[in-house]
Amino acid sequence: MVARVLVAVLLHLYTITGMMAAHFINARHIQDPNAANTTRKHYWGYPSRVLPCTKDTGTCEYLDAVYSMHETSMRYAFILWAVLLGIAATWLFIRGWRMTSHERQPSGPLESAWRHLALAKRRWLSPDVASKPLQRLFGHVSRLQLLILTILLAYCLLFSLIGITYRTWLTPLPASPLHNTRAGLGGFADRVGALAYALTPFAVLLGMRESVLSVVTGVPYQHFNFLHRWTGRVVFVQAVLHTVAWTMVEGRLYQPQPGVYREFIGQQYVVFGVVAMFVLTLMLVLSTRTAIRWFGYEVFRVGHWGLAVVYLGACWGHWEKLWCWMVASLVLVVLDQVVRWVRVAYLHCGGGKRSNFGFHCAQAHTTTLSSSADNDLVLRLDFTHTHRSPWQAGQHFHLTFPSLSLWQSHPFTPSSLPDPNSSRLQHHTYLLRVREGITARLAALDEGATVPVILSGPYGRGFPSYGAQNVLAVAGGTGVSFTLPVVLEALRQRVACGPVFAVEFVWVVKRGRDLLWVREELGELRERAEGWTGLGVRVFITRESEGRRVGPDEKTTGDMGEGESMVSELVGLLNGTSGCSVSFLGGRHPAIAEVVGDFVERAAMVGGNVEVVGSGPETMGSDVRSAVAELSVDTDVSCYWDSRGD
After folding, report:
1. Where is it chiefly localized (predicted)?
2. Average pLDDT over residues 207-219
3. Measured between alpha carbons, how far is 646 from 483 in angstroms, rounded to an integer?
């Protein structure tokens, strides 16, 4: 509704001021359309040109250069989108070909070339960037993501400079000793502005939760956030260059001053440009971590969407001849919101049952699972909810707690699997690491409190991937919510399919009592391991030593005795089961490279490809990706890390 109102207002303003803007644009381009014996040559995205040119030689040569640079700018903008659409089409074709190749025994030069390409990608592009300065600037980002950003930056830099007329003309002013300085700076300003317009729909695509890119590529939407942020910054830099360059032209190179600049800044299309630049700057500032920490996530989330709509409308009003980029962006923004709310309504309006029609929140029960001297607190949410189409292992939901904040939602992965025997009612279990914000407010509720929940989703890929045979799941802390359902689903598939392959679950936790988060699930894995040699369960406890279940800086309390007894019993059962082990590291961390290498060797004995999945702290994800990249085997090893767990 807000988007429609804003678009309607901007369209109304544009209708009122269209004639005025056209008059000023024609005046700015020093052409007289009413001159005798002249014709108009139309240009897409630019004012028509009046021919023949009746001005002085310098002015006519300048106009030749301006229109030539504009044609080149449009060409480069559409080449950019031709490349992007070509990549998307190629990716979609390869996805379909790879899925069908799992149904047969692939062979031949094409399959061999693909294996070599996948091996090169795994070894050279999957690891995180190792340079400390780059990590401080970009965070924990893979070489592939950085390579894509580098290519985009190189394209924008290169094609912002190629095709610019690097020449200056001094043109006289009638009845005045002054002269205008006309140069290629205006063409450069238009070039970066045109590329900023062309990049805007791409930035919106990268930021969509209901992602079109995810449908095409199969990559979950959250993995586009890095490119979304940096594409937005590229657009901001281009907008700044566009603004500064035209300010120099109109405020310095054209004479007489300050009259020329005063007339320029008062024009309607320039006012729209100033508004767009201000809104874009505000979006950039409010999206920084400092601003989010100061004003809260709610302000960022609602403000970012609202400001984006205003920015797109202001850009439309600034240069309506390139309206196509803004309309495409607005369509994507509205589509993202509409699809999201339709999915929410579908989940909460009775699941399609007329007898129960109406919006119903799920009712979640909270349980405090652990706490310690360093404020390490984990909450468990349990509730049942009606689903017509349940989720897959590894997918996540965005949860909103309307009694605490209606404007804030966070992604959480259910640690439970949907019941295949139930057509509608499904049980959800979530493990939440308590931080600041909404999770801290949840923790402040009474023990066992009931809180209403609104779900949106599910989002992300399902795991194990299609055709995956050997699965290694590595979790750190509450990342077990992502990996444990994947392991259980892999076991379910192995039983259904018949062949014996290797499945291993590795969990790194701080303390032994953290095992109680998923005590029943660990018990189920232990029972499975007793009857199937292909399953391995390895738990690493980093802050405790054998025989010492409490960290050196912590004190036991009277209500921990029962919990410690259950931990000891669970540890004993796991250590007493073949294929299962619990290791106390006493302040150390496990060697992830050894864990990955051991599993790949074991998988090689039974044959088949290997899929490594995991969730946890970013540093652990970097270790896993590096370990997979350093493998010297030619086996098909894929790696997926979900960084939302900790």
Report:
1. membrane
2. 91
3. 12
* Distance (Å, whole) CA 523 – CA 529: 10
Instruction: Assess contact for 459 and 411: CB atoms under 8 A.
Output: yes
Count of Cβ atoms closer than 10 Å to residue 298 Cβ: 16
pLDDT tens, residue by residue, 307-333:
999 999 999 999 999 999 999 999 999
Distance in angstroms (rounded) separating the CA atoms of residues 162 and 72:
9
Give the CA dihedral 615, 509, 366, 302, nearest 10 degrees. Answer: -40
Q: Residue 22 has what pLDDT?
A: 44
- The model's pTM is 0.88
Is-contact 352 388, C-beta < 8 A?
Answer: yes
The angle, 0 to 180 degrees and rounded to 10, between the axes of the packed helices 185-207 and 297-318 is 140
Say which residue, 633 or 84, is predicted with more confidence: 84
Identify the sign of the CA torsion 545, 547, 549, 555: negative
CB 301 within 8 A of CB 291: no
Of the candidates 524, 412, 425, the one whose C-alpha atom is nearest the C-alpha of residue 479 is 412
Separation of alpha carbons 265 and 270, rounded Å: 6
For residues 387 and 458, is the Cβ–Cβ distance under 8 A? no
Domains in the chain (CATH in brackets) are 2-98+163-342 (no CATH), 362-459 (2.40.30), 470-546+568-642 (3.40.50.80)
